[in-house]
Amino acid sequence: MIEARGLGVARGGRWLIRDAGLRVARGEVLGLIGPNGSGKTTLLRCLYGALAPDAGEVRLGGADIGALPRREIARRIAVVPQERPDDSGQRLREVVALGRLPHRGLMPGLGAGGAAAAQHALERVGLGAMAERPFASLSGGEAQRGLIARALCQEAPILLLDEPTNHLDLRYQHEVLGLIRSLGLTVVIVLHDLNLAARYCDRLALLDGGQVIASGPPEAVLTPALLEPVWQVSVTTLPRRDSGLHLIFAERPLDGQNQELFHAHH
Ligand SMILES: Nc1ncnc2c1ncn2[C@@H]1O[C@H](COP(=O)(O)OP(=O)(O)OP(=O)(O)O)[C@@H](O)[C@H]1O
């Protein structure tokens, strides 16, 4: 449904992304993982046409995204970016309702359907009671959930998210990722927390130095052999009771304390 082939982005004589390829099937949740500066945001921006690649192409439903009008892309792809929008004194419900823009006709005004969609999206992220709050007054986590509500309100079949759990406490990390999974959308999500990636993604793509160095199901990508050279930490994988795996990190090769923790789980 969305596919990148041979993507390259160059800046200042350096490839930020090099020969990157990925394919996301309909209804699949793909996690983009990789260390700081590995090119995750750059790749994501190419996927929604915000950045034109210097090599390769992104295909959306078979068409080159570079040839599609912005409004058409917005009907098909909703984005939760890393940065908060510039504050223009809007209330939360107004920011969320902006998600309806690609569905509006030429007539101004949101209409009752749009207002109901905004309220419904706010309730899904647990912010139903805060609709009238100025967006600027929200905490980091509330604002983040507000931007997710804006994307849900857009009702696009593809959802791209850049570190959506950044400001969220533990409860909302799981609630929001559980919600995203339950929507049945095609999702590409940048995640720093590899345990969340293991739990909520169908497949992972591992970026390092602008290249996709591994991709596949979490069990195939989250291995000590792949992760340790990339992050320069020691990695231990533990099976989870409910299937899947859990990772433990240490600065050095396993010391006595981590060995004890490991054995306590077995
Ligand atoms: N316009 C630009 N000009 C030069 N270098 C850039 C530009 N934009 C990004 N970069 C560099 O490209 C590399 C990849 O950046 P990117 O933001 O895609 O990484 P990331 O994996 O999302 O990182 P993080 O985990 O820190 O958010 C970084 O080294 C960054 O400094």
Automatic annotation (TrEMBL):
Residues 2-234 form the ABC transporter domain. Keywords: ATP-binding, Nucleotide-binding, Transport. It holds the Pfam family ABC_tran. InterPro entries: AAA+_ATPase, ABC_transporter-like_ATP-bd, P-loop_NTPase. Transmembrane segments: none annotated. PANTHER family: ABC TRANSPORTER ATP-BINDING PROTEIN (PTHR42794:SF2), HEMIN IMPORT ATP-BINDING PROTEIN HMUV (PTHR42794). This is Iron complex transport system ATP-binding protein.
